[in-house]
């Protein structure tokens, strides 16, 4: 068995999972901050929140592209 390749896949999986979770939680936090009535510019924070959600979605779609064999033909 090729242990280095297994380690490479394990590290890539952990990094990808941490990235998706971090982007999603940052998006949720920025949405909550933007909903605060005392903020001076909630539009900027909400835009960054939507950007985080979009990047999270792109990461999920990239993972699906790598996993589904139909796309790699």
From TrEMBL:
Keyword line: Membrane, Transmembrane, Transmembrane helix
Transmembrane helix listed as a keyword: yes
TM annotation in the entry: 6-27, 48-68
Superkingdom of the organism of origin: Bacteria
Record protein name field: Uncharacterized protein
Natural source organism: Pseudarthrobacter enclensis
């Amino acid at each position: 068995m090729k242990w280095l390749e297994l380690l490479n896949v394990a590290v890539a999986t952990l990094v990808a999972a941490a990235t998706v979770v971090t982007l999603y939680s940052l998006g949720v936090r920025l949405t909550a901050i933007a909903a605060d009535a005392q903020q001076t510019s909630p539009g900027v924070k909400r835009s960054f929140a939507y950007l985080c959600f979009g990047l999270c979605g792109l990461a999920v779609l990239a993972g699906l592209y790598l996993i589904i064999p139909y796309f790699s033909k």
